[in-house]
């Protein structure tokens, strides 16, 4: 099967809540700052709107692995904006450029797990440290938007540059 967008996820700025889990939508516009309708408090407040962190992506193989390890992770739970299907997460690396629907992204940095993940119903304070350890190097990638445009669930994904 060809690589594609499995799910698009956003969460608007909601006072008193963290930015996850993100909820699925069918399509959206992606600007140089990220997905329309999504708010990333960490990027905006702590990282001065760093464009290298405009979009977070992950692949379903990581979600499947986490489920097999007993963590009932669903697309959007880890805060990713775009959940990709039929791409090997282990093959993704900084500097790679992808065409995703009408947009182009360049993987910039790995997304490290944080204590906001404790808010997930199946994690909590008690299991939080174990979940953080489990997610090291597996939470997803931040990416810079090279070409803006619209994306929709099911759009094709292709590697442009390694």
Automatic annotation (TrEMBL):
<dbReference type="InterPro" id="IPR052353">
    <property type="entry name" value="Benzoxazolinone_Detox_Enz"/>
</dbReference>
<protein>
    <recommendedName>
        <fullName>MOSC domain-containing protein</fullName>
    </recommendedName>
</protein>
<dbReference type="GO" id="GO:0003824">
    <property type="term" value="F:catalytic activity"/>
</dbReference>
<dbReference type="InterPro" id="IPR011037">
    <property type="entry name" value="Pyrv_Knase-like_insert_dom_sf"/>
</dbReference>
<dbReference type="GO" id="GO:0030170">
    <property type="term" value="F:pyridoxal phosphate binding"/>
</dbReference>
<dbReference type="Pfam" id="PF03473">
    <property type="entry name" value="MOSC"/>
</dbReference>
<feature type="domain" description="MOSC">
    <location>
        <begin position="22"/>
        <end position="160"/>
    </location>
</feature>
<dbReference type="InterPro" id="IPR005302">
    <property type="entry name" value="MoCF_Sase_C"/>
</dbReference>
<dbReference type="GO" id="GO:0030151">
    <property type="term" value="F:molybdenum ion binding"/>
</dbReference>
